[in-house]
Structures are given as structure tokens and as C-alpha cells.
Amino acid sequence: xxxxxxxxxxxxxxxxxxxxxxxxxxxxxxxxxxxxxxxxxxxxxxxxxxxxxxxxxxxxxxxxxxxxxxxxxxxxxxxxxxxxxxxxxxxxxxxxxxxxxxxxxxxxxxxxxxxxxxxxxxxxxxxxxxxxxxxxxxxxxxxxxxxxxxxxxxxxxxxxxxxxxxxxxxxxxxxxxxxxxxxxxxxxxxxxxxxxxxxxxxxxxxxxxxxxxxxxxxxxxxxxxxxxxxxxxxxxxxxxxxxxxxxxxxxxxxxxxxxxxxxxxxxxxxxxxxxxxxxxxxxxxxxxxxxxxxxxxxxxxxxxxxxxxxxxxxxxxxxxxxxxxxxxxxxxxxxxxxxxxxxxxxxxxxxxxxxxxxxxxxxxxxxxxxxxxxxxxxxxxxxxxxxxxxxxxxxxxxxxxxxxxxxxxxxxxxxxxxxxx
Length: 421
Description:
With 421 residues, this protein is mainly α. It has 16 helices and no strands. The protein is globular. The mean pLDDT is 85.
């Protein structure tokens, strides 16, 4: 693996590969848990927040992948035209932090669920830490094989099996919870705050989507299959979490659903769900943390970085305080909505999808700006971040996602045009 563009003759992923990749990413206990956060909205407000939030978030996420599929470049390399060769390293560093954080959160959730299902057998199978380490090793192995023929086969087989198990899990949930949850009224969560919590999930993938879309044979097919694969399954997972929490008040709805499956004789499918859903949604974090590190420096080999990222995510998972999960989602929105407001404005509006690919890898090229930093991009990003945080601190009910991305994008566009006069 290196940061150079993937040549068109070497791009081997078709539309169905992207549908299955992002469907697999979305099959996650973390997404079910996040859906439970929307319970104070009631069912119908929560439902519409899930649909609208995914429409908005998925669109930005898939657009972020267009840069990669157009030119065969990694996500953090796609930040270079707007932020500068060295300026992109700031985004890469923050991306590494959030990716290790995500990988650890998913391992914790998978570890807890595995221990819950292993409790009847006792011993090491009832230990959270055992499952965290086991699933973490599986995730690292999966990441190391990313892009190879055997990986495509394993990914396809795992996702198809997981979709079947999710259908079973949904049937069990609907039978258990009944239709009374549809009548639950909203309580104390404004619609736009709930919308922010939904948007944050697909947005969290935006800083890494080009790491995979760069292998696409076709940009249009990659865009729409990424969009639909994640939209359908992530919305599905959120709804499961929302329904489970509304019906029971359980703060960990994913574990609750799995526990119900275990009690009625579906413990093995539930355990398969725990292990492989965590792996298929977690390996992109490890793989893309490696890509982001390579954007900063190529002095360490990619496999070494991947081993470090995988082991570090396991170690963090053993100590991370899960009560900070909701705040972590807001942190992602605050950092990456305005950052990609700048990146997307630069690529689609300022440059109209035209890049000098050679200059992306030269310190003295058109993207060097001021000592490698585009100060206009950094300022616009900062203004967007402050906008998000100001709305959060003042507790305005409009949410920070859309205002921050729009403010950052507009600031960048205006300041860039003033500079180019």
C-alpha cells in the first residue's frame, strides 16, 4: 500500500462490491446503540430523523468518495488541494484519532455482547476483555487482507450471512416489542439535535470513503452503491435500536436484542452477528488509519502501521469510558462537517472536479500554498468548527451539522474568490 493514485487498469471494485462493503460497515451494534439515543423523540419523530439524517449524511459521505473514484487517490490525499500538502496532515491526524476511537468503541460493544452470550458457559467466554481481544485480532487480520481476491470473497460471504441474521433479528424484535411503540410520544429531544446524532454516523465515514472508492471502476456506480448500501442498512440498524429502547428503556438496545435471540434458541446466530458485524464495520477504521498515517509520513511501512493501529485500538478498548459515546459522535460532527464543507466546496465548485494529480505529491507544486498550508482553508474550517460548538453550547435547537458545513463552505468560497481576483 502507498499513497500514489490507483491506475485505472488496477481498479477492480464494481458497484455491487461497494453496496456490500458499506452494507457490511452499517451492520453494527454501535449503530443499534446510537438509534437508542433517539428514544426521547418518540417513534415517529425518531423515524423521520433517521431517514432525513441518513439522506443528508449519506449524500455528503458518498460525495466525499467521488474525489477518490475520479482520480484513484486516498481520502487524506484528496484533502491536499484545499488544505495544502502539509495542511492535510492536520485532518489526517484528527482522522487517526477518531478512527482509533471508533475501532475501540466497536470492540467494546462487541466485547460486551460476546461476554453476555458467553455467560451461560462461564469462564473466559464470559469475559468482555476476551472478546475484545479476539474480535480485535479478527479485525486486524481482515484489514491486512483488504483489496485482495480472498478478501472480496470473505467480505461478500460475511455480509450476506449478516443480512440474513439481521432479518432474523428484526423479526424477533418486532415479535417481542409489538406495535405499541408506534404510539410513544416525543419527550425532550428537539428534532434537529436528533438529526445531528444521525448525520454524525455517515459523516464519520466521510474522511475515509475515498480510501475504498479509489479502487472503483466507475464513479457513478461507486457513488450510488455506496449511498444505497449504507442508507438502507444503517437506517435499519438505527430503527432497531430506537424500537428496542422505546419498548424497554434499555440503554444498550443491541445487547438487549441479542439477549432475546439467545433466550429463544438463536444464540449461535447472535454470536456470529456479534463477531462478524464488528469485524466488517471495524476493519475500515484500522485500514484507513493506516492510509491517514501514510499521508503524514511514508517512513514506516503500511503493514507495520496497520499492526500498530490494530493493537492500539484493542488497548484503548480495554480502558475507554463508553459513557462518552454520545459526546464522541458530536465531536465527529464538529470536526468533520466543516472540514469537508471546505473540501467539497473546493473540489466541486472552485475546481469543478479538475485536479493536477502530479502536484498532489510535490512540495513545490500548486498545492503548496504558504509553506504547505492553505490558510484560507484552515480559517474556514475553524469558523465552521466554532459555529458548531457555539450552537451546541447555546443549546440552540437547530443542530450544528448543517450550519457548520454551510458556513465553512461559504467562507472558503468567498475568501478564495477574493484571493484569486
